[in-house]
Amino acid sequence: MKNNFIKSTIILVIGGFITKILSMVIKICLTRSVGTEGIGVYSLVLPTFNLFITLCTLSLPIAISKLISERKRKSKHIITSIIPVTIIYNLILMVILYLIAPILSKYLLKNTDTYYAIIAIGLTLPFICISSIIKGYFFGKERMFPHTFSNIIEQLVRLFLTIYFIPNLLKYGLNIAICGVVLINILSEFSSIIVLMIFLPKEHINIHDFKFDKSNMKDILEISIPTTTTRLIGALTYFLEPIILTNVLLKVGYNNSYITLEYGIINGYVYPLLLLPSFFTMAISNALLPVVSNRYSNNDYKYTKYKIKQAIIISLFIGIPCTIIFMIFPDKLLHFIYHTNEGVSYIKIIAPFFILHYIQSPLTAALQGMNKAKCAMDGTFIGAIIRTILLFVISYFKVGLWGLIIASISNIIFITFHHLYYVKKYLK
C-alpha cells in the first residue's frame, strides 16, 4: 500500500504535467484563433459546461473508486449496473439543455453567440460520463496508468482538432467556432474511452450484465450525492458568476464589451495560469482517496493521518515556489504563454491566496475517504454563499471585475480552513 501511494502519485504527476502542458498549448492555440472576444464568449459558456459536467458525472469516479478500493463488491458488476442508468439520465440532461439554451443565452448571459455552444454541451455529456465511470474503476484498483494515458491521448486529439478545425469554423462566425470548441469534446472523450477499454480486464461481459441493481445504486448514491452536491454548489456558483456580474455591472454603468473582455481576461488568462500547479495537487488527491478509504475503513487512523499530512506537505512543496514565481514574474509568464500582458494586476493580488487553494484538493479527498463528504459539502456551501453575496454587493461599488477577485479570495480562505479543521477533528 505504501509503495502504491507513491507510485500512483508519481504516475499521476507525470501524466498530469504532460496533460497540463498540452492543455496550455490548446489554450494558446484557441486564444490565438478566436482572440480575446472569442475567449470572452467561451468564458461565458464554461460555467454552464462545468455545471452540466458535474450533473452528468454525479461524482461517479469518486464513488466507484471508493467502493472498489474497499473490496466489498465485485468490480465488474459495479460498472455494468451503473452505465444504463447514467445513459438514460444524460439523455434527459441533453433535452433540458436544448430547452433552456434560448433563455440562458439571450436573457441571462445576454450574449446570443453562446446559443449553439450551450446546445452542443448536451451532446458531449454521455461521452464524458462513460469515460468518468471507467476511470473510477481504475482509481479504485490503484491502477493510474490507464487513466493517465487516456488523458494524454484525449488532450492530443483535442489539440489536433483545435489547430485544424477551429480556424476554419471562424469563417462561419464566432458563434459557430465556439460551438465547435465544445463539440471537440465528443471526439476527445471518445478517444479516451477507447484507450480505457483496452486496459480493462478481459472479463466476459454480455448484454445481461447491463441491468439495474438497487443495492449497487444505493451504495453509489450514498457516496456520490454529498460529493456531487459539493461540486454542484461550486458549479452553480460559477454558473451564476457571469450572470450576476453582467447584470450588476450593466446596471451601474459598465458596457457589455468591457464585461466580456475583462471576464475573458480573468477566466482565460489569470485563473488558468494560477491553476497550473493544480495538476500536481489533483494527482496527489486522486492517489490519496483510495488509500484513505481503505485504511480509514479498517480503523488505521495513524497511517491515515500520516498519508494526509504527507499529501499536504507535498502540495505545499510545489505550491509555494509556484506562487512566488507568479507574484514576481506575472507579466513575463503571461507574455510567454498567451502573448499578452492583460491580467498582471489581478495575478499580483490573488496569487498569494492560491497557496491555500493548492491544499484544498487533498483535504477534500481526505474527507471523502473518511466518509465525511457531507462535511466537505457544508463547507463548500457556506463558502459559495459568502462568495455570491460578496460578488453581488461589491460589484455595486463600481470596482469593475475586482468584486470577482475579492469574492474568490474569500471563498478560498474559508473553504480551506474549514476542511483543515474537520480533517484534524476526525483524526484526533
Short recap of the structure:
The protein is mostly helical and 428 residues long.
- Count of β-strands: 0
Structural class: mainly alpha
Q: Residue-averaged pLDDT, rounded? A: 86
- Low-confidence stretches are none
Total tally of structural domains: 1
H/E series, N to C? HHHHHHHHHHHHHHHH
Q: Summarize the biggest pleated sheet.
A: none
Helix content: over 70%
Please report the number of helical segments: 16
Proportion in β-strands = under 5%
Form type: globular
The gyration radius over C-alpha positions equals 21 Å
The termini sit apart by 23 Å
Describe the structure.
The structure is a single chain. The protein is an all-alpha fold and 428 residues long. The protein has one domain (2-426). The protein is 84% helix and 0% strand. The protein is built from 16 helices and no strands.
